[in-house]
Design goal:
By secondary structure, this protein is of the alpha+beta class. Helix content is 26%, strand content 26%. 31% of the residues are buried. It binds adenosine-5'-diphosphate and magnesium ion.
């Protein structure tokens, strides 16, 4: 994957995509560096866990037909100067395709609390499969984007696009520590 144009100050980059016919897509760059150390989640591993979750979503789709829809994600290295004018050396991070969505689910429910009832059951079921298999520890409304899909009759219905998988695939420590249990919420 090669950056053709970058606007890293906004943490958004245009990259060649590997997973669709579209040649170029917008991706969001997230640094791998974690400011805090969380038991069960090796530091600086967030980018790898983000990419692993996307690969898992794609593989489950190929094997079972379940469409989970984690956006295309890769681990890349960029020059630190392209993120911060005083940066030196290189920075590793994940790039994730920007989801086609107007907002995350949290903002959408604040605007329209009835939105939950409009989300199709199969969509929620497939995301539950994803979270159980990946042992994702911080699933909450801020970590879903609210997209749209065809309901089969040409009309649109809401769908959920899962993002933010940096706290997935914990070791045993991550499943029991106060910050890594399934009820813990992060941004
Ligand atoms: N793939 C994506 N598509 C669209 N927006 C995204 C995507 N990933 C992140 N965002 C936006 O950035 C915000 C923070 O991203 P997130 O991955 O949840 O990081 P954090 O670890 O800071 O919570 C999200 O709430 C969403 O608004
Ligand atoms: Mg988040």
């Amino acid at each position: 994957m090669q950056a053709e144009w970058a606007q890293l100050q906004q943490l958004e980059v245009k990259l060649k995509t590997l997973e669709s016919d579209a040649r170029i897509k917008n991706f969001i760059f997230k640094e791998a560096d974690s400011p805090e150390s969380i038991p069960g989640f090796p530091n600086n591993g967030e980018a790898c866990r983000e990419a692993l979750a996307a690969d898992m979503s794609r593989t489950l789709n190929l094997m079972t037909g379940i469409d989970i829809g984690v956006p295309e994600t890769h681990v890349i290295k960029v020059s630190a100067a392209s993120i911060d004018e005083y940066g030196t050396g290189e920075v590793v991070g994940s790039v994730q395709a920007v989801a086609e969505a107007e907002s995350d689910l949290l903002k959408a429910t604040m605007a329209d609390p009835t939105i939950y009832a409009k989300i199709p059951k199969d969509c929620v079921d497939s995301l539950a499969v994803m979270d159980i298999v990946s042992l994702k520890t911080d699933r909450h409304e801020g970590n879903f984007m609210l997209g749209k899909r065809d309901d089969g009759s040409g009309a649109e219905e809401p769908t959920l696009i899962p993002i933010d998988h940096g706290l997935s695939f914990p070791s045993r420590d991550g499943m029991t520590c106060p910050e890594g249990d399934w009820t813990h919420e992060r941004g």
